[in-house]
Amino acid sequence: MPDIHHPGRRSVLAAATAGAASLGASWLLTGCTGASAAPALPMDAKGGSPDRGGTLRIARPPASDAETLDPASALSAYEYLGALYNRLVRVGANGDLVPDLAESWEPDAKARTWTFRIRAGVTFHDGRKLTSADAAYTLRHILAKETASPQAAVLAPLIDTKKLRTPDAHTLVVPLKTPNAEFPSLLTHYNCYVIPDGSARGIGRTGVGTGPFKLESFTPAGPGRITAYKDHWAGRPVLDAIDFYSVADMSARSNALLAGQVDLLSQTNLDFATARVVAASDRATIARVENAQWYVLPMLTTEKPFTDVRVRQAMKLAYDPEHVVKVALQGAGTAGWDNPVPPSDPAHITAHPKHDPEQARHLLKKAGHEGLTVDLYTSSYDPVFTPMALAYQDSAKRAGIRIRVKTASADSYYTQIWMKKPLMATYWYTGRPVDQLFTQVFRSGSSYNETAWSDKGFDALLDRARQETDDERRRELYGEAQTFVVEKGGAMTPMFADRLVGISRKVRGYAEHGFEFDYLGIGLKGA
Amino acid sequence: MFSFIARRAGAAVGTLFLSSVLVFLAVQALPGDVATQVLGKDATPDAVSALREKLKLDQPAWERYIDWIGGALHGDFGLSLVSGKAVGGEVGLYLGNSALIALVTVLFAVTGSIVLGILAGLYRDRWPDHLISTVSLIGMSVPEFVVATVLVLCFSVALPWFPAVVLYGPEASVGQLMPAVWLPALALAVVMAAYIVRMARTSVIDVMASEYVTTARLKGLSTWRVVTRHALPSALLPTLHVIALNVAWLAGGVAVVENVFNYPGIGKLMLASVQNRDLPVIQAIALISAVVYVVCNLAADLGAMALNPKLRTRGRTR
């Protein structure tokens, strides 16, 4: 189970029932309320300010009984982590880095040593004061082997934990093994929340952090409750408390919302049929997180015929991403043009080759694969996978490519199909900084390199980019990296999709992007 | 009579042994290596082989089977691979919650559908029969998740009388679960009732056409008396097996309905365990389901014997 994919283990039944459920639902709601069969999905949730206080009820998919609140090793429970803890730096709404527990940070001239100024006057939920020792301890905890943190593989080649220094209570100095101008962006990962010094043993259960909420109860894969932390350094949150409930089945989750039992469905990208039903309800509506899902058709570059770069190029030129967005997303997203960096990222470049089936045909002929036939694997794991595959199949036909769409079982999709079959459908959450994205998913040998692509030139380009201290020049290099991936890489990125989030009509101040969720501002009106 | 009971009990034990072997083999055949599924895909080969050793996956299958069945006979189903808790206690918790639904379902579905079936049989080919038969046919044909979803939309969303889903965990008290029991029970009853209605109807028709009912009528007994004293016991006989099978299905196969209602029952536990490849839990649930099936069938046979004098004496006449 890859941590950064859709975190919820959706039940096997979900997809089977969701379709029928929403059919039944739309039929019934149409019958009951006389609403039109296919109301348009709202662009945004209701504005206006919330009332102070109240309890927000969130339904989330249960992960497993092995769930933990230790941020360094957590593979789920994101809702808890974001509310209980803070990181040194976080990602702002426009994709730039903004301060969280670190007020400021600066590199030395070569970007080899980074100095973080830790915010003063911050307390943990148990009353202890935050100091730089806690930040240093957190980094050591992430890198400790026994923690088994997914982020360790990214940070271990960079940080030598023995050389971490805390010259005073509010200064953290991190000397790196190799220069890296993008180092702070790696600390925005959800495994990098700051925990108190010496807390590793119990943190998975206690959840003591500096965040706007403190833990009252937590059951792995079960219900839990967090309450407002009045002494939070950025002011107290609007809400008094948040109740979390685990609901495995997606249609059960939306039923709970429709029946008014919960106010928000987290980690749930509603399918279009269900989203329409929710939007038509008196109690609930749809909020969108723009371009939140990054959809990919990875080609394993170690498997024939995708070992040949001409075939990969042909596969990309053969289809029209605009067509895929129209068919698979019903327009609720942006065409990706095979560039994995989302349009909202400051580093995103717009240049890309045009859709050209003739050129694709020509390339295939040169590679000796005229009339190519390949299997494309999908599953009901995500509602968009199969429509995306069918839209691709349809579009690629013009280049003479025959795609056989095969549906695999959802519950073993990420162990049996992902990174094993030469061509399949998958997705990630957007919202990771550009260096983290390229390092984790495209660099040679990275554990999440799902196309097994290995290009020394690309790796060298990344190294140059992260060592470049001039911001403008660095942005150019990341632009070159995008061109590199578009031209030679194994991943097709047909689109970025809006996430359709079901929320109660009482919810105000809902704001979410990437893995960031505004716990301070969210509240209820007239609850 | 005792030899009959002994024979049936012997067959039941044999069936259980066979099903335990099948359950074990089926679970071994699940796709996906257990150790990798439990450790996640980032696990090092060392960790995987260490876990395989710890789970005794490196031993031959028959040794593991003996180990498992030996423990199961003492009520020890091992520890969950995921939560590390004792499987027996965990399964018991969920099983108890499912039993609550099963109890309500049986009370309503069985009594209700027997009454409807008898009515249909007595009014054969008249409008009450047509109505009951048509409705039960529809109930039988519609999958339970559709029934469940329609019930939720009617009685939780449109009319907020019952909760749409259960928000409590498996430790919920009976009082907390009670409001949430009615809709799942109704959904299961609708699907289950159809079979019982049709079986009861057919039996009543058969019995009412039999010679002894004609004799009873000729003796001048009232229709009510003929039905309750003479026809019903015989009509219930073949229905018993259908009821038994349905009760067994209730106890073991309510996964779909429990998922729609997020009800913390055995079906939901089973689904989660299959997804997590939590082998000890899957095996325990499968074995318990087999026990429930066998016991229900045994009970139906013995019940049939109690109702039918002919069966009671068969052992001797042979």
TrEMBL record, chain A:
**Pfam families assigned to the protein according to its UniProt record, in alphabetical order:** SBP_bac_5
Q: Which domain of life is it from?
A: Bacteria
Keywords, A to Z?
Answer: Signal, Transport
**Solute-binding protein family domain residues:** 97-448
Q: Where in the cell is it found?
A: Cell envelope
Query: Mainly resides where?
Result: other
Q: Which PANTHER family match?
A: PERIPLASMIC BINDING COMPONENT OF ABC TRANSPORTER, PERIPLASMIC OLIGOPEPTIDE-BINDING PROTEIN-RELATED
Please give the family membership noted in the entry. Belongs to the bacterial solute-binding protein 5 family.
The protein's name in its UniProt record: Peptide/nickel transport system substrate-binding protein
Q: What's the source species for this entry?
A: Streptomyces umbrinus
Automatic annotation (TrEMBL), chain B:
Q: Does the keyword Transport apply?
A: yes
Decide whether keyword Transmembrane is in the record.
Answer: yes
What is the membrane topology listed in the Swiss-Prot or TrEMBL record?
A: Multi-pass membrane protein
One Pfam family, please name it.
BPD_transp_1
**Cellular location(s):** Cell membrane
Coiled coil where?
none
Show where the ABC transmembrane type-1 domain sits: 95-300
Q: Which InterPro entries match?
A: BPD_transp_1_N, MetI-like, MetI-like_sf
Family statement drawn from the similarity comment of this UniProt entry: Belongs to the binding-protein-dependent transport system permease family.
What's the protein name?
Answer: Peptide/nickel transport system permease protein
